[in-house]
Amino acid sequence: MLTTTLASVVIGSLFVSSLSYANTDADQDGIDDSVEQTLLLKYAPKLYLHPDEDNKPSSIDWYLQRVAMRFHHDGGCSDDQILALGSVTQANLSQQAHQTKKMALLAHRQ
Fold first, then answer.
1. Residue 66 lies in domain
2. Which of 87, 49, 51 is nearest to 68 (CA)?
3. Structure pTM?
4. 15 occurs within a structural domain
5. CB 86 within 8 A of CB 65
6. pLDDT of amino acid 108
């Protein structure tokens, strides 16, 4: 409860103090950009890696450039490629669909 109250006070005071500056809300989420920046600087997570760590953080776009999207079939059927290596993007990732081979076979017979 104390944490929630403290967070409300901090956010409220940041909001009130930001009113004296030129209000900007570039992402139009209803929160002034200066408030977002202050909260980001104060509460953003910090990542500490061991000096010998080989696996560094990467962006989603970097990863998607290096993968292909395939539909895996259980039971001995071969996999089907949905998107080829290098063609997977954030924009087209959620727009993909795949019919099962059984459905495709039934459609072909008609």
1. 60-109
2. 87
3. 0.47
4. yes
5. yes
6. 43
In a domain, 54, yes or no: no
Token output for 37: 């920046």
Neighbours of 92 (CB within 10 A): 13
pLDDT of 63-99, one tens digit each?
999 999 888 877 777 888 888 999 999 999 888 877 6
Burial class (CB within 10 angstroms; exposed 0-12, middle 13-18, buried 19+) of 88: buried
Identify whether 52 is part of a domain.
Answer: no
For residue 23, tell me if it sits in a domain.
yes
* Same domain as 68, residue 32: no
User: How many beta carbons lie within 10 A of that of residue 35, not counting itself?
Assistant: 19
Residues 96, 84: Cα–Cα separation, whole Å: 12
Domain count, the chain: 2
